[in-house]
């Protein structure tokens, strides 16, 4: 099948240089595209970048990328023209989330009799926005979503937003086989610090501020919390690391180093703040990496958590998370590794891609 992919992805070697690009979202898109190709599909990428891109790396970007910085209206018209042209030589069009650049994509596809698929990693409803334009944008996104032929949602909650009989596929995320094969069982060394790891966006939505509160409530002093990533709370994380010797901020890690840290950690953390409306229609993609690593996982209860309850320690409050860290039991590591690794095989990318286009 010839698939036109509309997304926001950039090559991983320059991702870290673009401040507002989500590393998790970028990696998800690149993995999805790579595995669509592995499954025999011909994929043409058409990218729109709506965040600032430093001048010094613009020349490194592939030619299939349209930048908002070239002028908002001009860039939208350029992108629309490019997409409509590429649709002529495609069997289907797939997009990652629904942005203003391709909000009318299902209608363009229908006019050309092409199949349309939207992968919805997250969707913030109107209540999440404080401004009238933001609320109207959310409504328009929801309207667009209900007109795609197929929706692939990382959260089961997305299925509740669709029209009756609209095709919906739940796909929480994917695990790269090479990543999966890279992990080996490691045991906590007696009397050494218990290593906790959080890696991802540093924001209120991901609960990094709450994680710092958790550390203030953890009594065990033989703890080391490693935090990596970028985002609006970086200054707050740096300050916490200065005040608490148990916290180490590592900055934005290259992917290979991130994988190494996953393999070394004793406990992997997902402190996403589920009280925020922005978190009701998404899935924390880091959970896939955490399961592949086979480590003990401590998490808040994200949408659809019940499916993972045998493999992840879920808690309702951050006070409970602090208590769970203090109760860390090394003897559970072997059992957790074996169980989580078997479960993780269900989410290998080749299996997940088959859900999207082969049904």
Helices and strands in order, then pairings?
Blueprint: E1 2-7, H1 12-15, H2 23-38, E2 42-49, H3 55-58, E3 65-67, H4 72-87, E4 92-96, H5 105-111, E5 115-120, H6 132-145, E6 150-153, E7 167-170, H7 177-182, E8 194-199, H8 208-217, E9 223-228, H9 234-243, E10 247-249, H10 255-264, E11 267-270, H11 286-293, E12 296-300, E13 313-315, H12 318-326, H13 333-344, H14 349-357
Parallel strand pairs: 1-2, 1-4, 2-3, 4-5, 5-6, 6-7, 8-9, 8-11, 9-10, 11-12, 12-13
Helix pairs in contact: 8-12, 11-13
Structure description:
The two termini are 13 Å apart. The radius of gyration is 21 Å and the shape is globular. It has two domains: 2-170, Glycogen Phosphorylase B (Rossmann fold); 178-346, Rossmann fold, CATH 3.40.50.2000. The strands form two sheets. The protein has a seven-stranded parallel β-sheet with strand order 3-2-1-4-5-6-7, with helices on both faces. The chain has a six-stranded parallel β-sheet with strand order 10-9-8-11-12-13, sandwiched between helices. Helix 8 packs across helix 12 (318-326) and helix 11 (286-293) crosses helix 13 (333-344). The chain has helices at residues 12-15, 23-38, 55-58, 72-87, 105-111, 132-145, 177-182, 208-217, 234-243, 255-264, 286-293, 318-326, 333-344, 349-357, and strands at residues 2-7, 42-49, 65-67, 92-96, 115-120, 150-153, 167-170, 194-199, 223-228, 247-249, 267-270, 296-300, 313-315. With 359 residues, it is α/β, with parallel strands linked by helices.
